[in-house]
From TrEMBL:
SUPFAM superfamilies: WRKY DNA-binding domain. This is WRKY domain-containing protein. Its main location: nucleus. It comes from Vigna angularis var. angularis. GO terms for molecular function: DNA-binding transcription factor activity; transcription cis-regulatory region binding. GO terms for biological process: leaf senescence; response to hydrogen peroxide; response to ozone; response to salicylic acid. Belongs to the WRKY group III family. One of its GO terms (cellular component) is nucleus. Residues 209-229 are annotated as: Disordered.
Length: 362
DNA sequence: GAGATTTGACCAGG
DNA sequence: CCTGGTCAAATCTC
């Protein structure tokens, strides 16, 4: 029994390593093809798609094995407690509002939920840059942190029972950076509304900065609080980063964008990114799939994944993603929670994943 | 006056 | 017992 489990584990690792290699290959291909000529992607696209299919296939195999192992092994308990989502089984979804209310727990920490963390460099308090309306309900000095952490919940919590919350904390290193941790998903109407209208918050102008050279162009999404001069900036790359972390699930430890493109206004976004950030096509894909997105199955996840890193060259169905976005969270990925240890190493992504959004998305 | 924010107290996990 | 997360009364803003 244990031997077979070990064999399975090895084969899973093999699958994942293969996936990693394929991903690298794909990245190299994407990077080189887009940097050489942005318009001649048709030939490489075919190859890319093949690669993508391989990657997806590899991942699905690995996941199937992991699931299999999990069902047999002792990790099942962990899976269950971690809102196991064995392929869409509604049996144990993420703790739903009713459940949370019943226990009236003042600590949400232990509740299984998906977390998203955005680390943006921006000049405002970061309260509404994601387009949702939040209400502050607490502030706490955190041990070891210079700045207090602010606790926000969805404004429509009482009205619509939306339990989305977020925590905003200034970075110790750079006070201009706010670490925002999103907990739970919006179940309120603004979630779906935002997806369609994506009304940018008003007032303060925001622009994307590229390596300290402000690429202030046509798009200047706005923010609500004007505590900053008009120079409110979102930065990416070397100065600032957009970091997405699924703290509980840790599929993608982090992403760093090195050079954002300034694209046309995107109307479709339902996510936690500041509107301005969505100007970037990649971010649209990225955010749609990973930020407020709910991943409901392995295949969904990999669809998302494919839409994230590969930008437009691969992404050919926004409606799919939109559908995914509006799907209830049921965290389908507990079975691969720890995969980043063996596959999605942070450094690998930072260094091996050449996500030059300008290259990819123009 | 309604809604948002502040802030001290409370609660529960580790 | 310490700490983080939440509550809720007081206060502020529009």
């Amino acid at each position: 029994m244990e031997e077979s489990a070990q064999c399975e584990q090895v084969s899973v690792i093999d699958e994942l390593l293969l996936g990693k290699e394929l991903t690298k290959k794909l990245c190299e291909q994407l990077f080189s093809s887009s940097s050489s000529s942005s318009s001649s992607s048709s030939s490489s696209c075919d190859t890319n798609e093949v690669l993508i299919e391989k990657i997806i296939s590899t991942m699905e195999k690995a996941l199937a094995k992991v699931n299999c192992m999990a069902n047999v092994g002792e990790s099942k308990a962990m899976m269950d407690s971690h809102c196991s989502f064995t392929n869409g089984s509604p049996k144990s979804e993420v703790v739903e509002p009713e459940v949370e209310h019943k226990h009236v727990s003042k600590k949400r920490k232990t509740m299984p939920r998906r977390r998203e963390q955005v680390e943006v460099c921006l000049g405002t308090e970061g309260n509404k840059e994601d387009g949702y309306s939040w209400r502050k309900y607490g502030q706490k000095d955190i041990l070891g942190a210079k700045f207090p952490r602010g606790y926000y919940r969805c404004t429509y919590r009482n009205i619509q029972g939306c339990l989305a919350t977020k925590q905003v904390q200034k970075s110790d290193e750079d006070p201009m950076i706010y670490e925002i941790t999103y907990i739970g998903r919006h179940t309120c109407t603004q979630a779906s509304h935002l997806k369609k209208t994506a009304v940018p918050p008003s007032k303060t102008k925001v622009r994307i900065e590229e390596n300290k050279h402000q690429t202030n162009e046509k798009n200047q999404p706005q923010q609500e609080k004007i505590e900053q001069p008009p120079e409110t900036i979102f930065s990416f790359g070397s100065q600032g980063e957009v970091k997405v972390e699924d703290l509980d699930l840790e599929i993608f430890p982090s992403f760093c964008f090195s050079s954002p493109s300034v694209g046309s206004e995107n109307e479709e976004n339902n996510n936690i990114f500041p509107h301005s950030m969505i100007d970037n096509n990649l971010l649209e894909n990225f955010s749609s799939s990973f930020m407020s997105t709910t991943i409901t199955s392995e295949s969904d996840m990999f669809c998302n994944w494919e839409s994230i890193g590969l930008g437009q060259s691969v992404h050919n169905s926004t409606s799919d993603i939109t559908d995914i976005v509006s799907t209830p969270t049921s965290a389908t990925y507990s079975s691969i929670m720890d995969l980043d240890d063996i596959f999605l190493d942070k450094n690998d992504f930072d260094t091996d994943f050449p996500m030059n959004t300008r290259e990819l998305c123009i």
